[in-house]
DNA sequence: CTAACGTGTAACCATAAGGTTACATTAAAG
DNA sequence: CTTTAATGTAACCTTATGGTTACACGTTAG
């Protein structure tokens, strides 16, 4: 972890609802087999295996063979590391200094700083 | 937030080192203009604007027009919400119940449970 | 008013994501 | 040993990502 590419991998892995659901399922039923996991989804088994490969590449899922089957486990470590990064990197702002920005986001009309002009016709805020 | 598509958007936005760096820059220099931000990167201004669009769609960046320029601001709220989700959803496991799985991940050789057979030639753990 | 500057838009390109079906491989059961 | 069941691989398709260059638009400065 701690490397940019690793972070890319973890965030990318988490950027799909099906993959997040896989983590939920594996959290609830550790040691689940590939086929059993796949049966929980509408898409094909191969599609599920591709998602699994992405989760494994990110370190979020680990596995071990068990006969002709394979047992899958959720691994929290990468999430913990990212969590640590976040809280340290943005801790100053979580403390409240960015309340100014927060209210800009919630009511996207008022200027975030005194010297800023009021928006006239742009109206382009984050979606 | 709280919606799956919103989470997709935030995670996807964070899944690129350039975009994370943009958030860092905007955290350090709130109100920065598009061109000034773009000058920090090797890629073209248009590429930077596309990244910005993704960050804005995720709600991680908000902006307001200022003359012929546009001021950009980092918005923590989506990250805070995802953070809350994480800590509540996985709090039980962060407490230590998954230590068994963690050690599987770190030394990817020992079986995570007694009834599991030892790996023979698979050697496929999460990369 | 005109020129220059900062942004936004359009069109295009290469590659990666996400999905499919069909086939190969390995291990357990009969 | 042959069949069946679980997983893995290959080839292919469609759409999204990330990037480019060229051009249009609105705003400030001469």
TrEMBL record, chains A, B:
Coiled coil regions in record: none
Domain HTH arsR-type: 1-94
Region (Disordered): 108-127
Superkingdom field: Bacteria
Record SMART domains: HTH_ARSR
GO molecular function, one term: DNA-binding transcription factor activity
PROSITE patterns: HTH_ARSR_2
NCBIfam families attached to this UniProt entry: HTH_metalloreg
Protein name: ArsR family transcriptional regulator
Taxonomic lineage of the native organism: Bacteria, Pseudomonadati, Pseudomonadota, Gammaproteobacteria, Cellvibrionales
